[in-house]
## 1
Amino acid sequence: MLRTGDEYRDSIRDGREVYIDGELVADVPSHPAFKPIVDLRARIYDMAHEDAHREVMAYADPASGESNTISYKLPREKQDWHDKARWVDAVMREMGGVAIRIGDETVGEMWSLYDGSDVLDEVDPRFSANIAAHIERVVQGDIFHVSANTDPKGDRSKRPQDQDPDMLLHLVKETDAGIVVRGAKYETAAAYANQAFVKPTIANWGDDKLSDYALGFICDMGAPGLKHICRTGFADSKKPEDYPITTRFDEVDTLLIFDDVLVPWENVLFYRHTRAASFIRGTLHRYSAYPFVLRVLYLADMMIGTALFNCRQTGLENNPAVREKLAVLAGWREGINAHLTASIAMAEESPKGLLMPNQSLLYTGRVHAISNYPAMAHIARELCGGQICVTPDFATFQAPATKPWMDKFYTVNENWTAEDRRRLLAFGRDLLNSDYAGHRTTFELFAQSPPFAHLNAVYNNFDFENALDFVQKCAGLSDKVRG
Ligand SMILES: Cc1cc2nc3c(=O)[nH]c(=O)nc-3n(C[C@H](O)[C@H](O)[C@H](O)COP(=O)(O)OP(=O)(O)OC[C@H]3O[C@@H](n4cnc5c(N)ncnc54)[C@H](O)[C@@H]3O)c2cc1C
């Protein structure tokens, strides 16, 4: 089934308790902090119904004949991944920008758990049936699905039991209807999504005492007892002419409080199960890292395009030192492209027969994309020059007393009018220098786990044996060194 944008808007009018700037939000879809991003998400739903986009956005389910979104289709062959990349491309171009947490980038976390069905069966076969049912439900219902991993955590030198136990989400009690949980999670897009896959944060699951914290479940974002306490929005305090990205793409993050929330049994994926917690932490991003890294490709194109337009309009493009900087940006961009392309070309079968991007290439690509992100943004900032931060606002370009001066000093040549130069500089500022640009840099660093976890994923998936074999051969080492 394919939802419409309005069906999505109605689905989040479910009485959920959302706070922002200390106030209870009466209607999420129309609140100025949420409206721009809700409208974008709604637009994606509507695209799938339009002739111009239908073929890229949806596929016919062979069993039911229903049209479903390509973004949630289980990947079984390489073409599925190419189709998903086309879906992302169509969405980014239609939106005219980059939104990250729109469902396709988080749904794969459930596929990872599906791969661990054998682990889930160790405790209770109901749980592996539950994950299979939820994967199907998201596809059939076109549900906006997001991700909740990170607890406030508190003092890491203390065990959770030795401080406020709510610092990590935990089991309160079991009932006939389900489990009752308490704690909190940080979660992008929670306030305007339908559901989240809630799971434990990174922890040492060797300690059985933590078992009340080893919980995985699907949580309805309108469930009684949930409180969405959102950070201040960027979008509603700025003018669109001056902040064209901030005012459209602010993906509001939430501190999601679970104040004794009942999770029905059919939504429980594992509980009191430290091995399942370890499994999901070790495999969580095996699919979802692909769309996450793919977004950085689009951010790279935005940096390159903005920097190059600026160099062209000011006649700097042919300067060799400027070209070198553009080449560094291109090298970063193509490094991301190469990792993504190769990860599909050399894709691997998962334990449950799905097709995973090649894990080593995908995770090394994630490190390449994210660890270089701040340095590349800085090169783009440098190439845009200081005018991105000293240029007056749109109102100044319009006001009768100042307009002639703005026209005089911002008209660069016959091709670049003052208005186009102003637009490019405003866009560059919002991409690289604004509050939201800084926020996005931190998002890229942390939102799909912190950098140390990215490196840990590389360590766990790189084939070190090949290098050991080669050195053993080259150095003439005996077989004993391999233990
Ligand atoms: C904009 C944004 C959006 C986010 N969206 C989501 C979301 O949708 N869902 C979600 O679940 N989470 C989300 N997060 C949370 C994100 O996953 C966490 O920020 C991240 O996991 C790090 O946790 P922390 O912030 O508590 O940092 P801390 O755990 O306090 O870590 C801070 C730093 O300490 C060091 N450190 C900590 N522990 C270790 C360790 N074991 N080994 C080595 N070094 C360590 C590292 O340098 C680390 O970066 C988001 C974060 C941001 C900034």
## 2
Amino acid sequence: MGKKPENRLNDLSGREWLYWTDTLYITAYPVDATHPLRKQHGAMKPPEVMAEIVRFFTKKGEMVLDPFAGVGGTLLGAELEERQALGFEINPRWVEIYATICRNFAICEGQIRPLKEIAGQAYRRISAPMYQGDCLKLLKELPPASVDAIITDPPYGCDHGATGFADETNFNMQGQVPDPWADLGNAPDLAAFLTGMASVGRELHRVLKPGRYLVMMVGDRYRQGEYLPLGYILANCMREVGFKLKGVKIWSNKATRRRLKPYAVYSVFVPNITHQNILILRKE
Ligand SMILES: C[S@@+](CC[C@H](N)C(=O)[O-])C[C@H]1O[C@@H](n2cnc3c(N)ncnc32)[C@H](O)[C@@H]1O
């Protein structure tokens, strides 16, 4: 029998590794204890799903970065897996919700649970920092090749104002020049969004260690009577700044899937988009 090869990426067994390479990824996580707080965001991801992604793309103790951290799905996933993590988020409201979670919840027996319910049991506090600000500026403060994985869920900036944050007050608070388009969820059109994402992508490529992965969760869209393959478009955008696209997993969380809506029944085909693309990109 030959010697078992060294696992250079994660702490999984060969069997677990193989299972994760399936391009279809159906999960069934119900809402967790932090959901009532996190759901105010509307585009948050289940920490358990993020934990599975973290587990594949890092080893215990390594550093995970989320430049579009929202209310902390990736940071909480990294905490569940005992990784270090760092997040950037432009909207102070989401940073505050994450801070509330850090104050009132902890990891106990592999779950995020309210501190008040786990008195007397062993637990770990949630301490991964989330800094408020424009990730494009904050990324410039990180040294090159300093993070082991970037796992993120970018805003989908096609003039829908999803984060509702074209508000100047936040920028004044920081003493910065107001820049309503810094929130990429408010980009005026797809071209402006992609220009912003390319700038962020170049910084992500700089701060990631060679041989490691950028993982992006991206939902496709249906707009103005046409399917917009945003996953494919963003994958290409990241290829243009130097990443190699290594694969896509099609993810759907059965437990929180919304009901199908009867779009244009008996008339034309309009999809109910119930999946997200998990883009797996590598710095080679
Ligand atoms: C799809 S959400 C991420 C949700 C997150 N995965 C979670 O579980 O909560 C994208 C986030 O990117 C933030 N964002 C948009 N532009 C940004 C920027 N330039 N710098 C940092 N965050 C930004 C938005 O405010 C939004 O919260």
